[in-house]
């Protein structure tokens, strides 16, 4: 499952961002070589002229190859690295389902769970200072995941895929945003299962 | 560029939603047969028990095949239909760039431009009732697009792709959200070019 022709890139990322960990975990799992460069979002390092010249959207993660090609967007980098590997289902419909979960993650999950975690855990806002809709939307997202995972181990296809990597990034630290994963037992089991598959430490122990 | 094995599905969508038009335009362009079923989001038709049984996330568009398989998320349906066609670049890096624009569209473009259009044009809110950040974020998104399109006709690869279809859906009606596309001349030319390629009417004339 090697894809070494994609290797040798620089991955610009903020280590506290789940979005940035997605391509990092993917490259590590597939044995694709890269160089990690820390970029501190809160300090404004994605808004410098140098960084904006590489990514006009001013976002991390960003992958940059030695020939100057750049690729932003966590899920797009992950998909590029995963192409031809077991992390992207070979069946066309299972692959479409994996992509569907990636888009849902960025639209309906990250925008509630990651945003509330950032405000609560990093900006140290009190619950009353945080838009109450984020808690509702985040719990709705966890409910959708619980339903999907009831009776199945992985989000798409029959094995770990890019969908699980994308979704676990912020789900495993959802408690830092004030979400109680224990209310979603299938999600809790899947979090531990996915962390084990990725070889990353358990952010929470559920037993 | 036919992909008729994907055909024969039902596409549940709200005709005022650009997200729902994306897979519709894609299927039309590729000559893939489908049946369109109107779902009115504002009337709560995505929240009925019947609809939630098909898509627990309660979102349109949703594609459903006669064997019961369902696929939500506009960009995922579009990618599934486009597989093997010229709408998905065959070069791996150009394909990754197309995907990157799809994720950016859902995260940074739709959430500002489509949301402000919905509030202004459909909910008839006055400008003072609308979060001012939406105008700033929407114009930032248009600026990123202008930069990308300066010196190139299409977002990824050398021809119309899924990235253009996804991005044009709400860009062509951005004026309904209070955005002035004339301030972004490369974007304005690309909107007309993409509408022509899709065979859809010009939502605005720029000359």
Automatic annotation (TrEMBL), chains A, B:
GO molecular function: glutathione transferase activity
Pfam family name, one: GST_C
Gene3D superfamilies: 1.20.1050.10, Glutaredoxin (3.40.30.10)
GST N-terminal domain sequence ranges: 7-89
Keyword Transferase: yes
Superkingdom field: Bacteria
Start and end residues of each GST C-terminal domain: 91-207
PROSITE patterns, sorted: GST_CTER (PS50405), GST_NTER (PS50404)
EC id: 2.5.1.18
Name of the top EC class for this enzyme: transferase
PANTHER family: GLUTATHIONE S-TRANSFERASE-RELATED (PTHR44051), HYPOTHETICAL GLUTATHIONE S-TRANSFERASE LIKE PROTEIN (PTHR44051:SF2)
Protein name (Swiss-Prot/TrEMBL): Glutathione S-transferase
């Amino acid at each position: 499952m090697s894809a070494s022709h994609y290797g040798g890139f620089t991955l610009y990322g903020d280590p506290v961002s789940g979005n940035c960990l997605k391509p990092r975990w993917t490259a590590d799992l597939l044995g694709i070589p890269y160089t990690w460069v820390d970029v501190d979002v809160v300090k404004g390092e994605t808004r410098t002229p140098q960084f904006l010249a590489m990514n006009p959207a001013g976002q991390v993660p960003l992958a940059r190859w030695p020939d100057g090609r750049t690729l932003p967007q966590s899920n797009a980098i992950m998909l590029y690295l995963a192409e031809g590997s077991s992390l992207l289902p070979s069946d066309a419909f299972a692959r479409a389902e994996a992509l569907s979960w990636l888009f849902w993650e960025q639209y309906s999950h990250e925008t509630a769970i990651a945003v509330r975690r950032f405000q609560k855990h990093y900006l140290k806002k009190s619950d009353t200072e945080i838009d109450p809709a984020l808690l509702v939307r985040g719990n709705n997202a966890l409910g959708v995941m619980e339903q999907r995972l009831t009776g199945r181990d992985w989000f798409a296809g029959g094995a770990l895929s890019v969908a699980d990597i994308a979704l676990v990034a912020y789900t495993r630290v959802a408690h830092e945003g004030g979400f109680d994963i224990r209310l979603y037992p299938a999600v809790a089991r899947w979090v531990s299962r996915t962390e084990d598959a990725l070889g990353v430490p358990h952010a929470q122990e559920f037993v």
